[in-house]
Write a structure and sequence with these properties.
By secondary structure, the chain is of the alpha/beta class. It is built from 11 helices and 13 strands. It has one domain: Aldolase class I (TIM Barrel). The strands form 3 sheets. It has an 8-stranded parallel barrel with strand order 3-4-6-7-8-9-12-13, surrounded by 7 helices.
């Protein structure tokens, strides 16, 4: 009997497939549809600190007095946050699967108190998308220290698991993940997909690049899942960024992931793809004589293969010398 149950960040999941944060998880109706399709948990659409600040700046420009500007800023912030808390409460009432709130932030101070409200509203966990682009103005350790500081402070006030959605440009990813584990983080997600930039050569202006990931993006995710899983044992990892098939899900688990976040594939193929992926995963497990996810989780990670250097190989010379 095939059993797809697993755990991630202390949450018991009926299977490894989680709906990642996106526009598909910003309403109870859409979330319910994903639950019925078979996902085991939902990461709500992120509340963006930057978005709140942009709205505040635009409206505060019409105010003639500082007091009015302060009032507008406070109202906008509280309105955004209260709507988000309402989404958590409503989803909690309608759905039986775990609900993970998501915050996209770059400052520590604003989110510590709000995290307590998220917990009180009924969220089962909180996912933090913390990222600051270092364009040369910040020290090398700034981003790492930001991750460490926010987890340290949040652990002082909330009981629910804290999941960190990691950036790809961390210089020592296993080292940082090890620190987050020691601080009590519940798990990490590899990786966050950030805004893609492009240039319009006709209008000579900046524009947005591709919105969705591609299957080729999964290679880096797979590599680092295997390395982090092997270097930081007994810590939960979820694969994201580039997952487009049931094969990707299986590969991620073989590399050490306990959960798989889906996003682009849900947009491109619709919620029904979840059922198809689960069916194929069960068939593969049956044919491979695995009954449970734990039977093959991490068996090909950095610590469990004979030549872990294979995960460290980054040069193309050997590959292309034989390519015809």
């Amino acid at each position: 009997m095939i059993n797809l149950e697993t755990t991630f960040a202390g949450l018991r999941l009926k299977n490894p497939l989680i709906a990642g944060s996106s526009g598909l998880t910003n309403s109870v109706h859409k979330i319910k549809e994903l639950e019925e399709a078979g996902v085991s948990a939902i990461v709500l659409k992120s509340l963006f600190e930057e978005q709140i600040e942009n709205h505040s700046e635009k409206l505060s420009q019409i105010a003639d007095y500082p007091e009015a500007a302060d009032y507008i800023n406070t109202y906008i912030e509280m309105n955004h946050m209260e709507k988000y808390l309402d989404l958590i409460r409503s989803t909690r009432q309608e759905c039986d699967i775990p609900i993970i709130a998501s915050i996209n932030c770059y400052k520590l101070s604003r989110w510590v108190d709000f995290a307590k409200s998220i917990q009180d509203a009924g969220a089962d966990a909180i996912e933090l998308n913390l990222f600051v682009l270092n364009a040369g103005e910040l020290g090398d350790a700034y981003l790492e220290e930001s991750y460490v500081n926010i987890v340290r402070e949040l652990k002082k006030i909330i009981r629910i698991p804290i999941v960190i959605k990691m950036a790809k440009n961390i210089s020592n990813l296993p080292g940082l993940v090890s620190k987050l584990k020691a601080l009590g983080a519940g798990g990490v997600v590899l990786f966050n997909r950030f805004y893609q930039l492009d240039i319009d050569i006709k209008k000579l202006e900046l524009t947005s690049g591709p919105v969705f990931s591609t299957p080729s993006d999964f290679s880096d995710t797979l590599r680092w899942t295997a390395i982090v899983s092997g270097r930081v044992p007994d810590f939960d990892i979820a694969c994201s960024y580039g997952v487009h098939s049931w094969e990707d899900a299986v590969k991620g688990i073989l590399a050490g992931a306990g959960a798989i976040q889906l996003c682009s594939v849900l947009y491109e193929q619709g919620p029904h793809v979840v059922h198809d992926m689960l069916f194929c995963m069960e068939e593969w497990m049956s044919q491979s004589n695995y009954e449970r996810i734990e039977d093959f989780k991490g068996i090909l990670n950095y610590a469990n293969i004979k030549s872990p250097v294979l995960y460290e190989r980054v040069q193309f010379m050997k590959y292309f010398s034989n390519y015809k």
